Amino acid sequence: MSSPGEESRSGDRSHGSTERRVFNFSAGPAALPVEVLERARDELLDYRGSGMSVMEMSHRSKEFIDIAERAEADFRELLAVPDDYAVLFLQGGATTQFAMVPMNLLGDRTRADYVNTGSWSTKAIKEAKRFCEVNVAASAEADNFTHVPDPATWSLSKDAAYLHVCSNETIGGVQFHEFPEAPAPLVADMSSDILSRPVDVSRFALIYAGAQKNIGPAGLTVVVVRKDLLGNARPGTPSMLDYAVHAEADSMSNTPPTYAWYLAGLVFEWLKAEGGVAAIAARNQRKAAKLYDAIEASNFYASPVARHDRSLMNVPFTLADAALDKTFLAGAEERGLTNLKGHRSVGGMRASLYNAVPEAAVDALVDYMQAFEHEHG
Ligand SMILES: Cc1ncc(COP(=O)(O)O)c(C=O)c1O
Question: How far apart are CA 360 and CA 291, in angstroms?
């Protein structure tokens, strides 16, 4: 069994005798590539001869403008973002986007369509109701959010300003593996699966993501928005909640989250060096398949999610006897497998397998699961 302390191809390794890197399955904030942390460490006190940390730099300085522009260019390259889309580096988390989307995209319409696939969709719907009439075009709530409702059954409005989906429900572990054709502009919360697989950005009017899973540290929110949708914010919209204001100012209308932006840039460089989004998607497929196969092969572990809609990023699973959950988690911690406790609303376990979680982490988890079943099953 490989352990987190061992040198591994995917970069998880300990530094010296006092540091111990664990395999971190956190749903977010989540594991960052160790190469990125090492680079940040090396550049912490003196960023490339500037004599200061990126944290201490003016966002108007040449050094920081270079960092910001490089990060945006790399992000655009990684996701193949077309030129008619703005990429914004904002604050406020994905939760602020639950409000900014209706505030900016409703225009003179009064209704928006939402598909409800879980906790995060539910929150987005609740917030949108402050601004407009929400048509819940489909909901999996009656089935405990264990699948994506079949698009053939969605009841879409004729006059919706947009259709909102959550591409990956971080808590329930339900993911869209295809995106349906929709008459209204498609908006997606991709907080927990952005950059984990290729997506055709041109299919979307707007994509948003809190950074703290696949992009970088918390404090940064990335928005990709088609430029023709800018400039229609509802009257009274605070300027900091108006996409057009941020787009106009290259996301520097006020002081941006500079250090988080810099770290996101390092993550983008790392991802390019790993072969880009297609290469990481192949690795993510392998990682998730190993874990789901182990769950399927056992009578002890179970996944509550319909096969077709299982998330490659967040894998909830239950033990045959919930009374063993605590023992399972304690044993996992001892082996350096951390943050496996399921969300309080779902229970059981959840392993988040974001880009920076190495394949060796999944191998170690599967080994542990098999040993645990052998002992307790
Ligand atoms: C899918 C999804 N949407 C929205 C959010 C809320 O993000 P934030 O905490 O950045 O506001 C999260 C947070 O985990 C999430 O997973």
Answer: 12
The closest alpha carbon to 270, from 139, 107, 75, 105, belongs to: 75
Are 4 and 12 in contact, with CB atoms under 8 Å apart?
Answer: yes
Ligand 1: centre distance to CA 165 (Å): 13
Closest by CA to 306, choosing from 320, 319, 292, 285, is 292
Ranges of the chain with pLDDT below 70: 1-18
Instruction: Using a cut of 0.85, tell me whether the model's pTM lies above it.
Output: yes
Alpha carbons 129 and 123: distance in angstroms, whole number? 10
Quote the ligand 1 centre to 210 CA distance (angstroms): 6
Residue type, 162: Y
| CA 121/CA 220 separation, integer angstroms | 20
Mutation test of ligand 1: which of 89, 90, 91, 95 has the most ligand atoms closer than 8 Å to its C-beta?
95
Domains along the chain with CATH numbers: 23-30+276-376 (3.90.1150.10), 47-273 (3.40.640.10)
The DSSP H or E segment spanning 134 is strand 133-139
Is the shortest distance between the CB of 216 and ligand 1 below 6 Å?
A: no
The pLDDT of residue 16: 44
pLDDT the model gives residue 2: 46
Closest CA to 362 of 292, 302, 277, 272: 292
